[in-house]
Amino acid sequence: MFLCNMKILLVFPQMLKNCSLVFYYPSGRTVDEVFENDFNTCSAGYAISSENSGYTTIPLLTAGPHYFLCGVVGHYAKGIKLALNVIGEVGKWRRGKTSA
Description:
Layout: H1 6-11, E1 14-17, E2 20-24, E3 31-34, H2 36-40, E4 49-51, E5 55-59, E6 64-69, E7 81-89
Parallel strand pairs: 1-7
Antiparallel strand pairs: 2-5, 3-4, 3-6, 6-7
């Protein structure tokens, strides 16, 4: 289970470029960053990255969609997944608006 502030991410599933996403999770779980197609088909076989330390920090260096899931069989179906959009840059974030 990803123990991040999922309520905020679900309400506002966007983050700023050059921020980091932090996952806390129990042993026996993974955080896999995957491509969109793999996310949609629940497949971690071709993960961009995979971590299992229980504490994973992922720097969000590129704008656009990012997809994460737990690679443990059955966890994706239980909703242990996250899709978010990375927008703008921290220095360009002003009063709720981004600039290109």
